[in-house]
Amino acid sequence: MAKTEKKVATPAKIAIPKKLTLPKIDLNKLREKFNTDKVVKTIVLALILVFSFALVDLLVQYLNNSYSVAIVNGVRITRGDFYNRLEKTYGLSTTKSLIQEELVTQGAAKEGVAVTEDDIQKRLNDYYNENGGRDAVLATLKANNFTEQDVREQIKIGLLMEKVLAKRVSYTDKELEDFFKQYKDVLYGTEKVKFEDKKAEIVEYYVNKSVQDLKEGWLAELEAAAKVQNNVANVPKYGFLKTSTTIVKNLYTEISNQLKSN
Question: Three-state SS string across 132-156, please?
Answer without folding.
Answer: CCHHHHHHHHHHCCCCHHHHHHHHH
